[in-house]
Amino acid sequence: MPASSPPAQRSNGKPAPISRESEKTEWRGVVYACAATALSDLTFGMIAPFFPNAALARGVSQSVVGAIFAVQALGVCVGSILAPTYALERLGAFGALRLATLAQALFTAAFCLVDRMSTAVPFAAACLAVRLLQGLACGLTETAAASLAMRSVPDRLLGDVFAWVAAARALGAVSGPPVGGAAFDWRGFAAPFTIAGGLLGALGLLMLVAGVRAGSAGGAGGPPSTGMASLLRVPGVVPALLSMHTALAALNFLMPTLQPFFHTAFALSSTQIGLAFLGVAVAYGAAIGASGPLSRAAGEAPQMVLGLALIALGYLLLGPSPILARWLPQTLAGSLGALAVGAAGMAMAMVPSTPLMIAAVSAWAAGDADRKQRAIDGLAALATVAGSLGGVTGPALGGVLMQYLSFPGATSCFAALPVALVPLLLPYIHLRAAGAAQEEVIASRRRSSTTGGLGGSGVLL
User: Fold this and answer.
1) What is the rounded average pLDDT for all residues in the chain?
2) What CATH number did the domain enclosing 137 receive?
3) Does residue 228 lie in a domain region?
4) How many domains, in total, are found in the chain?
5) Sorting pLDDT into bands at 50, 70 and 90, what band is 26?
6) Residue 2, domain member (yes or no)
7) Could you give the CA distance from residue 66 to residue 12 in angstroms, rounded to a whole number?
8) Global confidence as pTM
9) Mean pLDDT of the 277-291 span
10) Has residue 444 got a pLDDT over 50?
11) Lowest mean pLDDT among 116-130, 344-358, 421-435
12) Cβ distance 1 to 229 under 8 Å?
């Protein structure tokens, strides 16, 4: 099965390149891609300020609440793997994105109906079913959006546009809680889903009436894209994907856990908790702004190591950790500051991973334009899967840990995850995503490495 969205349309029997330096940027395609991913992930995070307590009040356990958050991300993972064969090859990137956006609008609006169920089992079953359908549509959205965005820009902007889509996805996730919390306090359970479903529906209708140019839309019939297994053997790809996964797992860990903690410890309302998530979005956005200059000065891998360290520090301070409780009292200001530190770490760990992967596969392609085209196309699906698994890991771990530990204990345990990833990035600490010299370093590393397993350094080679 192909691992990603198909390459661009054929011309005279040969696959057209994803983009060409002589082409102008198709900004409408970029905007559609970023808007669709942002709204798609907004539906995931918007229930964080009110849903956990609403479910617990019906007798749903904390572990099942975590599973309800995680099942949408699991659906995203499955949908992104199935998307190339069953949608993108038939509809093209733009057609698939349009269909997926309208489907998500329908499934999001359907979530309004679960509020009518007052007992634990029907309520949990309905939530799991609707969230799974949302996730399957979201998986198609994420993969189609990444493919459309990369086809809408010249080669020199491929790394940038990939990062823009990833950033839009994360910003949608952290912006969802303020929207959801305020809408819930304003009009009750159904309001957040009505608003989000309406926004998705409006975007889908806009794409029906205002399309993109044919070269950006993608099409069927291209050669098979590079498989996931092949890309995972490229040096540097696995650590970058793990960094992306960990950053999004850290973000999604908060979805089922932060609201019960803030409500119990500080008596915050749903709107106030949503504003706390907005602070996460602000810190994340500020860190994105600093990521470019920092990565140019220090390199992508060092920045990712710094980001992982900040995630761990933020989670240790958030509770605060039981080992720090003697010196750090539990205060709202301290918790909000810890969230800001962790959010900055999430951005710094995730954003540089995309340029590093693109540089790695460019060197791996060794000047073969078609091979590079298929490999970069394949990164769209891999990045979606990595992020989706982060959306599964985070809330699932959060739900289980909160079932048996206090919030400070749960966040302290989670802090070990980014710390464990740091050694995988150390072999790439000197690499830079930009420049031919860096690509030659990666290519030399590839020529001297063995394939098909974990090397002695712990990096997939």
Assistant:
1) 78
2) 1.20.1250.20
3) yes
4) 1
5) confident
6) no
7) 51
8) 0.69
9) 81
10) no
11) 421-435
12) no
pLDDT of residue 6: 39
Q: How far is CA 269 from CA 44, 50, 149, 264, 414, in A?
A: 20, 9, 38, 10, 26
**How many angstroms separate the CA atoms of 33 and 48, rounded?**
24
CA 155 to chain centroid? 23
Instruction: Assess contact for 354 and 159: CB atoms under 8 A.
Output: yes
Task: Report the distance separating Cα 81 and Cα 87, nearest Å.
Answer: 11
Place of tokens 């959801």: 180
Per-residue pLDDT, 155: 66
User: Mind spelling out the 3-state secondary structure of the chain?
Assistant: CCCCCCCCCEECCEECCCCCCCCCCCHHHHHHHHHHHHHHHHHHHCCCCCHHHHHHHCCCCHHHHHHHHHHHHHHHHHHHHHHHHHHHHHHHHHHHHHHHHHHHHHHHHHHHHHHHCCCHHHHHHHHHHHHHHHHHHHHHHHHHHHHHHHHCCCHHHHHHHHHHHHHHHHHHHHHHHHHHHHHHHHHCCHHHHHHHHHHHHHHHHHHHHCCCCHHHHCCCCCCCCCCHHHHHCCCCHHHHHHHHHHHHHHHHHHHHHHHHHHHHHHCCCHHHHHHHHHHHHHHHHHHHHHHHHHHHHHCHHHHHHHHHHHHHHHHHHHCCCCCCCCCCCCCHHHHHHHHHHHHHHHHHHHCCHHHHHHHHHHHHHCCCHHHHHHHHHHHHHHHHHHHHHHHHHHHHHHHHHHHHCCHHHHHHHHCHHHHHHHHHHHHHCCCCCCCHHHHHHHHHHHHHCCCCCECCCCCEC
Give the largest Cα separation in the chain, rounded: 71
Give domain status of residue 208, yes or no.
Answer: yes
Q: Which two tokens stand for residue 219?
A: 């099409």
* Locus of tokens 């053997």: 233
Is 282 inside a domain boundary?
Answer: yes
Range of the domain at 151: 25-448
pLDDT for the residue 344: 93
What mean pLDDT is predicted for residues 1-28? 46
- Tokens for 350, please give them: 């995730």
pLDDT band at 437 (very low <50, low <70, confident <90, very high): very low
Q: pLDDT confidence of 328, banded at 50, 70, 90? A: confident
